[in-house]
Amino acid sequence: MSNRESLIPLKMLLFSFHGANTIIISFLPLYLQFKGLDGKEIGWVLAIGPMAAIISQPFWGYMSDKYQTVKRIVIICLICLMVGSYIFLQMTTVPLLLMMAVVFFFFAAPVGALGDSLSQRRADELGISFGTIRMWGSIGFATSSLAVGELLSMVGIEYMIWPYLFLAGLALAVCFWLKDVKINAKPIQFKDLRRLTKNKPFIIFLFLIMFITTTHRANDSFIGIYIDQLGGTESLIGVSWFVGVASEALVFAFAGYWFRKLHPLVFIIIAGLLYSIRWFAYGFIEDPMFIVAFQFLHGLTFGVFYLSAFQYVTRLIPKVLQSTGHLVFVSMFFGVSGIIGSLIGGSLIDTMGGGFLYLSMGGIALVGSIGITIYHVLPFGK
After folding, report:
1. Distance separating alpha carbons of residues 142 and 70, to the nearest angstrom
2. What are phi and psi of 242, to 5 degrees?
3. Cα separations (Å) of 126 from 2, 74, 129?
4. How far apart are CA 292 and CA 238, in angstroms?
5. According to its record, how does it sit in the membrane (predicted)?
């Protein structure tokens, strides 16, 4: 098998896992509503995901670096998330749902990040763009959002577990053909993690990007509610997700043509400013169709931002701590930012409305963009 052919299982892993993940992101709230939970109870269950990610992602990243394998850690997590998801989705009472949600998300949260970490390493090894591999996750997300949405509209939301298990099982199956990447001959020790905590550029960078990533995660949580407030339908919400993730896939696909032209921080600043413009535009919009039209900016915001930030983090951290550093970054992006975005966003949309929420997000993203610009001109932001 050639080096390029050896990427096929990795691309299939990204496609199938992100396809499964979109089922949880897009349809779990409706499934919990079908189970009889009210909005507040659903919010508690959904908050478990980013809370678990804060712990599980750095933990599994450390285990990956310690035992010098991404492949085996991903296999363990996928087996456990399949068992955990089946039990989780059978629960009917809130305490049991919360307890099993912790178990499920503990194993589910690291898989995407570990897949991205392996993709970055394989891309560096082959001298190709990370985006050309990562785009298969976006394609899986977009495809699943349409196909599973149509399927569940025909058979009912109560059967959500079966397409999820099918895609998660496919992800597990292709893992056995993955080519692993070993960076160092000497396994890391727990004391080596101090190299990350003492890495000031890394810590400052994570703090500054939270101003932008928090707005991204708030949009993930509330764009559906905002479209509904503007008079949009559930099908329009699905289309908005598809348009956004399809544009993201295109940005990843063509990353090899644009990505290395400028410093990663320049792309992060550009993406941050586009985030700000995007949120301000959403705040003034009164027709939900315009939200869908502006969703093409998702690729130019999240796609450019995530790709550039992931690459920059790879520069900042030593090779022996690649998986740990990558998963700390992802846990900040999707975990800490997810909790802050959900709590603050939920309060603002309830009290002030969706328009005010998005105008506030535009201001916060602008502050983050200015902060990263200052960081870039300082000596350690090179």
Report:
1. 25
2. -60, -45
3. 11, 22, 9
4. 10
5. Multi-pass membrane protein
